[in-house]
Each structure stands twice: as structure tokens, then as C-alpha cells.
């Protein structure tokens, strides 16, 4: 009998029952006020006169009027670079304890995003909220005695100028509570291995010694890890070595495109729970099984704003124009795409995180990630978002009975001086590429009126290339972006796409 599991499940149940459904709109008002009060005497707070904003009758409106939007490069060039010169109280009191390194999906050079002690505490609080919400998923008591495999980046953080640097998943894992360390796998020693392939090799060797009940990490890298374990032990599926695996917490990207290939590695169904941990903070987590949407963490150190997704508001480099209107949680509508803007306890202010979302339930503050602002393909007026591309990939998987785990696309001008959408699909599918291109084109015409209009004007057609999915992993490896928080670029500009095609060929 799972005595400890019953105790833990009981405590979670009682705590969750006593926790009232949060008022997310009120939470956001409190968070904004706290952020402004705490940072009013910083260089940033004095420059934008937080003191006068705090005297306003409408904090959110005054804040939006007086503080401009920032993407990473603007924030770094104007403010965060001072932190690396030893200045204090720049955009947040004192100096950050950590910097999260994030190259994301663009470029080799890592972004260095401040992570303060307050952010570490906010991430921990949001993690506790996620654990408490497990009570809603009707998991058996013995699940709470099993180990959890957290496959992120290395926890071997690098010391530099009185702070530590690493990816956010490595920073978070290095700050796990002492009581959780007994459940945490692959354990501190293996987690510190910097080379991703070497770390996975150690995981495969030790897999039989662990009783894994849950997996956590970005889908592409969790899949590769499971494939390695299966191959190393000559298994048919991952449940042959981890029979008690019951939960997978995804994060950072939409799980949909990976669902079919992920399930092919399992021996039985698992509960999939989506989470949204970015380098800038823990944004949202799925709290109930009735929906795949995630609830914004409205009470833990992040103030959210939402800019309607429209080409007129976005510059060519993916940043926001200053005239782009922002909405608060009180003003958003269901099922409309918004560009996510955040202000945080790490001193990010009206910061363009790069993701687009839509609300599925406003009262519960539940969202779905719909894409990336830089992956919004509008070169020839097609207005194609990542969620529409993901839907098209799912359609191809069903139509051709295959798995397509990775893809990338570019609006490319070919020799005939005409624009085509050039797709590379990572799959084992053995089919005519023109037939696939026609199916893709037809689906997008039916699903997106702007795409259909573009196809009758500047967009001449669709071209498809089938390549092994391993090519995508090798590309990431070549660009030193394997494992951790890394996501494959779904949309590339022509100059980067030329390098991609040279690499593939």
C-alpha cells in the first residue's frame, strides 16, 4: 500500500480544497502596483517616473502611456548592459543573482536575461501551484511516491562577475527545494554534465535503476531521450523500463505537432500537462484535465499585457511599433491572437517575450500558445501563424498516415522571380513531394482566407522537401543549440534559410 503517497495526495487535496479560485484581474492589479513600488527608485523607475504613475487613478493606463515597449535587444542596449559593467539598481533593486542564457530559436549568440532572487521565488511558487493542481487529475496515490525526470539544460552554472549563468531550466533545477531532491532525476551529478549527448548517455545507462512516474521537458528532447533509453536497453517502448510512468509535463512549445511521435514511444497512455516556463519567468501552467489550455500565473511576479496580433503593429524585425495598443486582462476577448507583453520581478518592463497566445477562458485566465511573432509568415500577405502551420502538419499526418515531428518554412523567391512557400518536413514518409505540397496548399487555402488571397496574387505556390528528422537535430547541434530550452525555428528569413539549405544538401 502506498502509505506515503496517500499522505502526500491527502495533503495536496486538502491544500487545494482550501485554496479559493483566484481573482486573476485583482491579482494583476496588485502585481503591477507591487512592481512599480519596488522599482520606483531604480534607474529605470526614476527615468520613467514610476512615482507619478503610482499616483494615477488608473495604474495600468498610466503605465502603458509612460513606458514604451521593449524587446530583448532594446532592453539590453538601453538598460541591462549596465549590469555587466557593475552598476546596481538598474531596472530592479540591487543586482541579479543569475543570468538566464537563451538563444531561443534565433542566432548563435545567447541572450543574457536577468534572474533575480524574487524571480526564483516566483518560479518556485508557481511550481507549487502546479503540484497542487495535480489533485485535479485524479492520479493514484502511488504516483506521489515515484521519481520525476526533469530533462532541462545543465545545472553546472558558470560563475561570472558575482553572478551565475545558465539556461533557465538549469537555474530552476539548481534551486529545487531540499525535500524534492529525493524524487528528482537524473540527479545532481548527471544534471551537471554540460554536453547533452553525454548526459543522455548517462541517463540511458542508469534508467533501469529509477522508478520514473513523470517526465518534464521540451517534447523534441524528451523524445530523443526516450529513444536513446529504448535503443540502449533493446525495448519496444519506454513503459517496459518505466512501467509507472503516468505523467508528462510539456513546456515551451505546443505539444500538438509532437503528439503522434511521442505516443509511439509509449506502451500505454499518459496524462499530458502543459506548462509554460520561459527564460523570463514561469508564465502559465495547465491546472485541470478538462482543457489543454494553461492558466496564467497572475499572482507570482509577472504583470501581463496583450497586444492584438496584427501586421500593422509589428516591425519587420518582430518588435512592436510604439502605436500598438495594449490590453489588460480586463479587456481581452476569447479566441483572438494576442502578442504577449510582460513586466517582471527580474526588471523586464513592457517586454516583448516573442510569443502569441489566445484566451480560451478569461475568468480562469486560461490561454494557449498560438505561435511566435517572428514566425508570423506575412512576406507576401499570407498572414500565416504557427498554429495554422501546426494544424496543416496534423492534417498531413492524418492524410498520409505518418509522423512529422519537425518542420521549417520560408517565403522564398525562386529563379522564376516568383515567391513560393518552401517547406522542409522531418519525416520518414515515402510519398511524392508534389502530392504533399498540393495537400498542404489546399488545406491552408481552406483554413486561412488571407492565405487564399495571397495564393491568387504574390504567392505563386508551395514546394516541399522531405528530409530525415535527424537533420533538424544536427542543425541545432551545429549551432550549439541542442537540448535544454532550444526550439527549432518554424519560420526562417531567406538569408538564414540559404544556410539551412546549404547544410541540408
From TrEMBL:
Which superkingdom heads the taxonomic lineage of this protein's source?
A: Bacteria
Domain GH3 middle residues, every copy? 299-363
As recorded in UniProt, coiled-coil segments are: none
Q: Where is the GH3 C-terminal domain?
A: 390-495
Return the Pfam families for the record. GH3 (PF03321), GH3_C (PF23572), GH3_M (PF23571)
Q: Mind telling me which PANTHER family this protein's record contains? A: GH3 DOMAIN-CONTAINING PROTEIN
Q: What is this protein called?
A: GH3 auxin-responsive promoter family protein
Q: Which organism is it from?
A: Polaribacter marinivivus
